[in-house]
Amino acid sequence: MTVIGVGLIGGSLALAAKRAKLVEQVVGYSKRRGDLYKAVALGVLDRYSLNLSKAVQEADLVVLATPVGVLESMTRAIAPYLKKGAIVTDVGSVKGPLVSKMEACLPDGTFFVGGHPIAGSEKSGVSAALPTLFNRSVAILTPTSNTDRKALLKVARLWKGLGTSVVEMDPIKHDQTMAVVSHLPHLLAYGLMELFFHPRVTMQPLSFSAGSLRDFTRVAESSPEIWHDIFRMNQGALLEALDLYQETLEKMKKAICNAQPGEATAHTRNNVHHRSGPETLAQILMHAKTVRRKIRP
Amino acid sequence: MTVIGVGLIGGSLALAAKRAKLVEQVVGYSKRRGDLYKAVALGVLDRYSLNLSKAVQEADLVVLATPVGVLESMTRAIAPYLKKGAIVTDVGSVKGPLVSKMEACLPDGTFFVGGHPIAGSEKSGVSAALPTLFNRSVAILTPTSNTDRKALLKVARLWKGLGTSVVEMDPIKHDQTMAVVSHLPHLLAYGLMELFFHPRVTMQPLSFSAGSLRDFTRVAESSPEIWHDIFRMNQGALLEALDLYQETLEKMKKAICNAQPGEATAHTRNNVHHRSGPETLAQILMHAKTVRRKIRP
After folding, report:
1. Which end of chain B is least crowded, N or C, by CB within 10 Å?
2. CB-based contact (8 Å) between B149 and chain A?
3. Which residues pair with A63 in a beta bridge?
4. Chain A partners of B233 at a C-beta cutoff of 8 Å?
5. Which domains can be identified in chain B, with CATH numbers?
6. A111 pLDDT tier (thresholds 50, 70, 90)
7. Interchain contact, B291 vs A196, CB within 8 Å
8. How many CB pairs under 8 A join A and B?
């Protein structure tokens, strides 16, 4: 297996695949030479090459684990050096605008399978790589009508071998889903940090930050390089989700203005969960609690 | 010490004060009889009374730990039964509209000190009480020109005895600060859960929820009863913070639309942190990361 881009995700995949004995050896390639040295020292890679053709020419499987902004150009760059039968997959968080382009870059006799493991951390870089990162997580594969079923099965087998569930999803549907459950929360967290640069807000409140702010903004420490690409490349679905979220905030504003003393207590007692007419603040808070419990722990 | 309202905060304070031997005994009062039974069984209370006058008449210190919506009426209710020299304090998350009213409820010879420990959890109820909840946290006290300095020092000593730092703050300033660092993050988290009730969003994405959504919405499991009161009573400062946040989201939208490939990478390399002209998405993400590091862990 060759991993192109040796950061948190590429590094964790290499460690996990080696530990599960799913691959003979892991070869790495990165534009950042320091990452390669570190990855070998940490046992993440068996060897590396600074030469892209040498890095991929013997690989049965090439995993692209770069920021999504360079996935297409990287696919184009490795294409001439792939051996017959090689499978190329990726771990990118954006699929819609990429999958068919990446497919089109590859020569006949090689295969592309779009993939995205739903796992990560606010940490980045190979030093943060963990062999257990994908345990009990979900990997989404995004086959198209051009996808070779055998190649798809091989990539699915890799993820399953790491204790990861595999789900197939249309690339566009993937991007809409991720916009809501991942990209929007990241955007909102970055936005809350940016709020402290607003001329009418000072940094001083940060000294009194409670657990809510801490948890809420954990992901705002994520790699700006990676998230810049994700926001830019999934901007359609993301801005649509943000529009709906802003509508929701307007609804909540009204509900707060109209909130009456004791309403939540009355609702809790009477267990009122119907949703006719404009929701009261009490209803919104109680429904939120119900939805929150549906999120897997 | 008498604790009125025996939930997460009241219960934790009782446990912590007993463990630190700062109080002789803790007497409890609650409108929920079940909470009192549970609190005694858990060792949180030494005894309880279902009669408000009996609960407070011997207390040197009465701590009001009810939802903020009933703090004023509860202060009025206990006022006739307080002994000479008694100090009343509270742990409410909203101070501006309450402190002077609560002061005014109390008879001469008794003392009011507004307080708010910045600690909590998405859990609620006395079963979630922890003697360590206030360790290394900050308690804000909100004295006014009417506050007795000796009473203020006694309440400060209680919190310090629990390993809590004490900061004095103007009640209005307190509410503005909390609006930004706590109430707004809660509102945004509740809003993100409410988004799943939007007619154009389905619940299905929840099956793919990543760590970001999980952390982001942890607080949406908080008690609707408590947060209904907080949002309602701090609505001025909260809606102002929300307005500024919405401005920030608009700015981010524009930055996303204008984002150019490779910008974040270039910025990271050149360490560009100036803020002249409209910020680029790359700048916003990098600044967010910097601010995030200022939040105490």
Report:
1. C
2. no
3. A3, A89
4. none
5. 2-171 (3.40.50.720), 174-292 (1.10.3660.10)
6. very high
7. yes
8. 313
